[in-house]
Every structure is written in C-alpha cells, then in structure tokens.
Design a protein that fits this description.
Aldehyde Dehydrogenase, Chain A, domain 1; about 20% strand; 2 domains; 7-stranded parallel β-sheet; 15 helices; Aldehyde Dehydrogenase, Chain A, domain 2; alpha/beta; 17 strands
C-alpha cells in the first residue's frame, strides 16, 4: 500500500475520526448487539477471503518480522472460527448499565449519576488481526465508535475485517458504517496523528511494545489526549520462606505455559528462608528450556544460571531474541519482595506462595500493581479470565480511572443528571 504524505495522512485520520464521532451518536444497545451477531456470521461467510488476504500479509512480512510476530499475525481456519466466537460472546454480554445511583437532595432536586459514552475512541495496536475485531466490538458494546490503527504488517487483513465484516454488519443493523474507522496507511505517522486529535479522539487505547507505546503515550499527553496504555508487563512470583514446595513449583510451572504474553512469570523472587527450593525451581526452568538470568546474590546460591545483564524488571516477553528467559533474585523477606515488585517492575501483576496467611496478607495489602495473587499464577491477570469479558488491554497507570484489565464496562464518562421543578435556588 502506497504511503501517503503527512498532509494527506493527517486529512485521512481526521476524516476517519470526524465521521466516527458523528456515527457514535446513532449507536444503541439493541442494534449494536444485532451488528455484532451479524459480524460473527460475516466472519464465517468470508472465511476464505480473510485467510487469503492474511496469507498475503504474512508473505510480505516474512522477511521483516520475527517468528513470534509472524505467528501473532497469522490466521488459519481455527483462528477465524475463534474470531467469530469472540464476536458472538461479546454480542451476548449484557449491555452496560447506564444509571449508577439516584438520590434526592433536601431542596427536591433529583440527581442521577450516569455512565455516558465517550464518543470516538482511538486504538493503536500491534500487527494482530484478532485485535481489530476484539477492540472494535468492545468499543461498540460500550456505545463508542472506533478509529483503529494497526501495524503495517496486518493492514491488509485489518482492512478486510473492517470493510467486509464490521461495516457491512453495522449497515445491516441500521447503524452508520463509519462507526468503525481505520487509518489506512502503514506509516507510523498515522499512530502519532491518532494521539494528536484531542477534540476528535479524546481517548486512545495503546497496545504494543513498551518503547513504542510509551513514546505514543508521551506524545498523547503533550497533545491533551488521554490514553489507556498497555506498554509493559511481566509477572512477579515471590516464594516466601513458608512456601510449600509443591505449591511453589506448581504455580511457577502454570505461570509459564506461554512465554510471549505479558502476564507470564518474568521475575522470580526467592526468600532466603526458602533457599532449599532454589535447586528444584532452577531445574523446573531448565525442564522448560528457559535461560535463567540471576542477580549477584542469586548467583551465590543458584547453579546453572547466568548473570543478569538487563535491569531487574526487564520484560523478556517483549524481547523477541530472548523470550525464553526468566530473572531470578533472592530477597530478605516480604518487605523487600513487595518493594521490588512495586518499584522495579511494570506493576502488572505479582503473586506470593506461602502457607503463612499473615505474610500473604502483608504482601497483598502492600503491592500496588493491577492484580495481586496468592497461590495462583499471574497468567490470570486477564480481563476475560477474571471478569468473563474480553479486554482491550491492561492499563497499568497509577492514577484514578480504569486500571488493570480494561473492558467495555470501563469505557464511559461520568455524568450527573439533575431534574428539578424550577423552584430550586442557591
């Protein structure tokens, strides 16, 4: 696809955003549900076209991306079926309750706290075709319109999913096709423009590699655009001195069923009171073909490990050349373990293994990340697993607002509706 000049691309992005903003006003729960059901059927009906277009994307990307990225880009029949099933599942979720609470003031004013749609919401994400439907469906479910921008490698597939699935489904339901917009350029400038339009796109969901996403979040802040950013991850597992060997190894193993995901075990912290478990833990990592990078104090106790050559909280899932790696450290108690989890890592998720309920409560109460676990793997830091609803990503901001797994239930603005009888005065 030819690259547009910056001026032309700006016009393209602004036009998509403007049309999406107008279309948002027409959305309603019943017709959105109908549209999502129709989209699921259109995915199945267009299966061969989607697979063929995606195969062309994969062929073009093969020499430019690593195998992990290529795998996330690739769609086959089973993955297309999963796309349809996800749309159906989202369609059947209960609509967002709009009224939160109602009360009457002493002067007779009736006040209702309500959830109202945002309008046009942007989304910039890596070259993963499934995210096109996932995020668009959740935005529509919350009665917001979408302006999507994906990595250039997936642009052909994304265009097919928007033009042959989402927009026809919206039209079939009597809704504006423009309720889902797409930045139709592989140029990275498209992402920069998307986070630079506060009046047209006041909120942008950012998903992708830490460095790129963090840069876009900074640019958005400079332009007055709010973001929900999923830039970094990496689960922490703290093995306390009172940990059961069986539980510790079971949680560690179940935290590593997949390596290229943000909520996998990334940093293992072993209490000095649990050093007897270190050999078994390192052996477990070896059985999973993982490289173990240890801090100096962990190297003193752990054989068959290598010195850590990155910062302590470095996320290996984002390191395509070294994804099969975990970091190992030794700590002096709950206080230090929590401090490391809070200060050295992204704040996505951390868990503790211990038979000491008091220690577990101290850890859970002190950790400030989005999800805290006891005897459970951080792999459950996932919107669908925890709430039964697909997520747009996991927001790790440390400010009020949607945090942790963000779903359609979070994509709204608070409004107070006040009704009087004209007799009220200040």
């Amino acid at each position: 696809m030819a690259r547009a000049s910056t001026t032309t691309l700006r016009e393209l992005v602004e036009n998509e955003a403007r049309r999406a903003g107008v279309a948002a006003a027409a959305l309603d729960d019943a017709r959105v549900t109908t549209a999502l059901r129709s989209a699921a059927e259109l995915v199945r009906a267009n299966r061969s076209t989607i697979v063929d277009v995606n195969a062309a994307d994969c062929d073009r990307a093969r020499d430019r991306v690593d195998e992990g990225t290529l795998d996330r880009l690739r769609l086959d029949d089973d993955r297309v079926d999963a796309l349809a099933e996800q749309l159906t599942a989202t369609a059947e979720i209960a609509p967002l309750e709009r009224d939160i609470a109602t009360w009457t003031l002493a002067n007779g004013l009736r006040v209702t706290e309500r959830r109202v749609p945002i309008g046009a919401v942007g989304a910039n994400f890596e070259a993963r075709p499934n995210v096109v439907l996932d995020i668009a469906a959740q935005l529509l479910k919350s009665l917001n319109s979408a302006v999507l921008r994906t990595g250039g490698a997936a642009l052909g597939t994304a265009t097919c999913l928007v033009d042959d699935v989402l927009r026809p489904a919206l039209a079939d339901a009597g809704l504006p096709r423009d309720a889902v917009g797409l930045v139709r350029s592989p140029d990275h400038t498209g992402a920069e423009l998307l986070v630079s339009l506060p009046r047209l796109v006041p909120l942008v969901i950012l998903r992708g590699s830490g460095e790129t996403t963090a840069r876009l979040a900074r640019l958005a802040a400079e332009n007055g655009v709010r973001t929900l950013a999923h830039a970094e991850g990496g689960g922490v597992l703290y093995i306390h001195g009172a940990a059961s060997r069986e539980r510790a190894l079971a949680v560690a193993r179940s935290s590593l069923d997949r390596l290229g995901v943000c909520n996998r075990l990334n940093l293992a912290l072993v209490d000095r009171g649990a050093l007897q478990l270190l050999p078994d833990l390192v052996a477990l990592f070896a059985s999973l073909s993982l490289e173990v990078r240890a801090t100096p104090r962990a190297l003193e106790h752990a054989v068959d490990t290598l010195p850590l050559d990155r910062r302590l909280g470095h996320e290996w899932a984002n390191d395509s050349e070294r994804v099969a790696t975990v970091t190992l450290d030794v700590v002096d108690g709950v206080t230090e373990a929590v401090a490391i989890a809070n200060e050295e890592t992204s704040g996505l998720a951390a868990g503790i293994v211990t038979e000491d309920a008091g220690a577990a409560e101290r850890f859970l109460d002190s950790y400030r990340g989005t999800s805290a676990f006891w005897h459970a793997p951080t792999r459950f830091a996932d919107g669908f697993e925890l709430t039964g609803v697909p997520e747009t990503g996991i927001n790790i901001d440390s400010v009020p607002g949607p945090r942790g797994p963000v779903t359609y239930r979070d994509l709204w603005l608070r409004q107070y509706r006040v009704v009087g009888d004209a007799s009220q005065t200040r």
